[in-house]
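Internal tracking record. Fields below are filled automatically when a chain is submitted to the structure queue. Please do not edit lines marked as system-generated. If the sequence contains nonstandard residues, flag them in the REMARKS field before resubmitting.
Queue: standard
Priority: normal
Entity type: single polypeptide chain
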Amino acid sequence: MARIEGKKKDLIMAARPSFMKRAWPVLLTLVGMFGGYTVVLWRLGKLSEFLDHLDALAGVFVALFTLVLVWIEHGRDLRDDIRQEEHRSRIDRRVSAVAFLISRQLRSWLSEIATLGAGQGNLIETIAILGEIDDDAYKRTSDPLFKWWGQKTKDQDEAERRFEGVVAILPEASPGVAEAVRHAFVKFADFAGRWNQSLAVQVQGEVPDWKQIVRGLKSLQSASDRLDAAIDAELRQIRDEAITVESPIEQLAEALSKLPPIGESPAKDGESQQLSAGHES
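SYSTEM-GENERATED OUTPUT FOLLOWS
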């Protein structure tokens, strides 16, 4: 342990300028001032009056000495700023890595929710409409969502653990990165709280409030979007290549694009082969 502490002390001392390095500018200024002043008096033939001008010389020395101290302090401040910026960059990279993992998880949830709601059009609007006018259809739409969410307890705990870990180092991160992660954490907690509460209501045999589901979905989307500001460009590109989040509207549009035109029915295999043979002949 003593050897390790000694090495740490050596590294710290090596990183800091020594006393002599800091004193050299002051010593050179002192020598230059007295030497120059002596040479001037000697050339004027007034070297005997050196002591008479000592008070004025002392004032000039104090002014120059103060200026040198200011210069040294300014250099120290610049080095401190550089070290702080390097430290902030390291913290931002750590936050970016954790935010990348959280973002993948949230986007995966959004993709799975969109898959469960495929064929429902705009899932949020569908839940809102059915929740107001038709309890049976509303339950048929919401029950798969809560069944899926009930199986995500472990993933939810993992995302919460990652959020709590990264929030602890946000005071040392860049302001923009810190604000993005805090916003995402609040929205994630809002989503999880609303859906956990709705799941508990469903387990009791009651119908969950559709407003809780909709607001939770909006919070989840907001958390996913806001995290992008905390992830560097390269990690965002890797994430986007790995996970493509499609909205229910996009899935519905893709399904509709594959349907035949109105008034036409899809050709059977036999008919298509006959048409193909006729064209060849």
